[in-house]
Amino acid sequence: MRAAAAPDDLIVAGDLRLDETRKAIVERTAERFGTLECLINNAGRGSYYPPSRAPLDDARDLFELNFFAPLHLAQLATPLLEKSRGTLVNVASIAAQISLPWLPIYSASKFALASLSTSQRIEMRARGVHVMAAFPGYVDTDFQAHATGNAPPAAVVKGKRFAVTADECAEAILRGIEKRRNVVVTPRAGWAAIWLNRLMPSAIESTMERA
Q1: Which of 63, 69, 130, 171 has the fewest CB atoms below 10 angstroms from its CB?
Q2: For the segment 100-119, what is each residue's pLDDT rounded down to a tens digit?
Q3: Active-site residue, 48 included
């Protein structure tokens, strides 16, 4: 974190699954800057366990990071975001629009986060807070190396050559914040998969089954 940060950046290291870490992030931000203009909930991890064999402890741990951390951080940050008329961003995933059978618990957590984002937007719009959900597709990160469970399917691993870079994903999210969009899908080609899934879900499921 320090290697990527500017000299004057505030760094609060900790485990986002813990309430005290979440509170420290918001409290130290308010102390340092006196305001909070944007909260981007980006932390998360994957799980390649199939639904029938996913350990419950692992599933609960994943939801703690992927869903409950963004929920709690948003609750803590809301008073500051209302004052600044700022932006809340929840980074979900294309897996929040199309269930990925090789990432079932991850997909479930991101579907929950997407639904939460819509509810937060409805609640906070009148207070001047912009709420945006981001749905990245395949991003070139170490996601697979840090996920639990089985190895991902070979076809999925090979698909990484079509992934967008982390910088490209971040730039798309930044443009969405600047234009106060409700939803960002990156790469934009992901919209085609989303609409195909909505119009022909059985066909998409059959394709996923062969992956």
Answers
A1: 171
A2: 999 999 999 999 999 999 99
A3: no
Report strand pairing: 183-186 vs 130-136.
parallel
Instruction: Determine the pLDDT at residue 211.
Output: 64
Q: If DSSP codes are grouped into helix, strand and coil, which group holds residue 92? A: coil
Query: Residue 166: what residue type?
Result: A
Residue 106 annotated as catalytic? yes
**Catalytic-labelled residue, pool 110, 138, 158, 179:** 110
Check 48, 49, 106, 138 and give the catalytic one.
106
Instruction: Count CB-CB contacts under 10 A for residue 189.
Output: 11
Which domains does the chain carry? 19-209 (3.40.50.720)
> Minimal CA–CA distance to 135: which of 69, 189, 179?
189
Contacts 24+ apart (CB under 8 A), 53-59: 54/104, 54/105, 54/149, 58/105, 58/148, 58/149, 59/105
C-alpha torsion 109→47→181→115, nearest 10: -10
Q: Residue-wise over 20-44: b if at least 16 C-beta within 10 A, else e?
A: ebbeebbeebeeeeeebeebbbeeb
The pTM score is 0.92
